[in-house]
Amino acid sequence: MSGGDGVFGYRHGIATAQLILFFVALCLAVFFKIGHRNGWFCIGVFSIFRVVGAGCMLGTITNDASSVWAGVFVCESLGMVLIVFLLIEFMDRANNVVKTVHPRWFFYPQVITWADIGLAVGGFASASKTDSLAPTKYTQASFGLFTGLYLIVLYTFWQFWRAMSTFPREEKLVLRCVGVGLPLLAIRTAYSLIYQITGDRTWNAVKGNPTPYLVMTFLPELAIIYTCIWGIFQVAPPPRKAKDKRNVRERLRGYAMIGSDQGSREREHQPDPTRPQASV
């Protein structure tokens, strides 16, 4: 273990705020899971990444090992995909109420995401073997894929925005949450792309200038997550899923009643072995 400088700096203060606020978001995600609401998985896992990343950043105060910095690096990189899927989940909810786009527009991001995860794993392996967090072919390809993913989501949302008047109140509300989140996500994406293109350490999310990180990463991410949390509190759980579960219970109850009635009828028609049978 290599010791850090033991100084609590500006970037560590941001990490402390991340640790507290995203831990609260994680607790709310657990609450949403219990209530069978939208968004619990993406909010929960994203919050875990940010809590772990913030913990690693605070750990660098006393431990300057490259593996600790690599942990911060990977957590910062992976979380953005979950924000995208949170916005996609909101649009998917609206699409289940009013058919607006073909389901393939929700399938394309999944394919891109799996490729992005593979590149992130390669980026972690590369970063953990060196003290340099400069852009690599893995991180550049990853953010290139993410930019393509963002454009797909932006185009999908445009289709929903054109049909906004056809949606009920609750679906309009979740779509407006998407409308708030996409510009903020563009700011977050621009922050990462600047560094991947220029290599200027100022824009590095791990060891760069804390002020651009605060304005273009922490605050936009926090605003997106808590805007979505507010939206989830304003709408009911997805009616389709609740209906499916109710229908399953009703079908099982019906099957049990049918089985019981059928068994009763069969017992009525069976001869009583203790009663003498009439001869022909």
Topology:
Layout: H1 10-34, H2 40-59, H3 66-97, H4 104-128, H5 137-162, H6 169-198, H7 210-234, H8 239-269
Helix pairs in contact: 1-2, 1-7, 2-3, 3-4, 3-5, 3-6, 4-5, 5-6, 6-7
Organism: Apiospora kogelbergensis
Pfam families: DUF7702
Domain DUF7702: 9-229
Structure notes:
- With about 280 residues, the chain is an all-alpha fold.
- The chain has a single domain, classed as Rhopdopsin 7-helix transmembrane proteins (Up-down Bundle).
- It contains eight helices and no strands.
- It has helices at about 10-35, 40-60, 65-95, 105-130, 135-160, 170-200, 210-235, 240-270.
- Helix 3 (about 65-95) runs antiparallel to helix 6 (about 170-200) and helix 4 (about 105-130) runs antiparallel to helix 5.
- The longest helix has about 30 residues, at about 65-95.
- The radius of gyration is 26 Å and the shape is globular.
- Mean pLDDT is about 80; it is low at about 240-245.
Number of strands: 0
Helix-strand string: HHHHHHHH
Report the CATH topology name.
Rhopdopsin 7-helix transmembrane proteins
Unreliable sequence segments: 241-245
Q: How is the main sheet built?
A: none
CATH superfamily: Rhodopsin 7-helix transmembrane proteins
Structural descriptors:
280 residues; mainly alpha; Rhopdopsin 7-helix transmembrane proteins; 76% helix; 0% strand; globular
Short description:
Helices cover 76% and strands 0% of the residues. The chain has 280 residues and is mainly alpha-helical.
